[in-house]
Specification:
The chain has a domain of about 30 residues. By secondary structure, it is mainly alpha-helical.
């Protein structure tokens, strides 16, 4: 399978492939110009690139407590995970 992934091409082969690919792209472009009623391109405008920090919701306040309740091995304020037992 690896033999299909890479082929050393001569300069002439590279030029032929380049010309053929340009012909295909130009042909496709000409056919696209014939199509009518193409949807217009739109862009999304954002007011800010950063999100604003919000106060914790009631769900988030109890998250640590719920996690610790479900943990089989835990200390006062953290849980203990397995190490290299797999």
């Amino acid at each position: 399978m690896a033999g299909f992934l890479y082929k050393d091409l001569s300069k002439k082969e590279r030029e032929e492939i380049s010309l053929e690919s340009k012909k295909i792209i130009n042909s496709f472009g000409k056919k696209l110009e014939l199509v009518k009623n193409l949807p217009s391109e739109s862009s999304i405008e954002k007011n800010s690139g950063y999100r604003l920090e919000e106060k914790e919701s009631p769900c988030d306040l109890n998250f640590k407590k719920r996690i610790l309740e479900n943990a089989p091995h835990k200390t006062k304020d953290s849980f203990i995970s397995e190490k290299k037992s797999w």
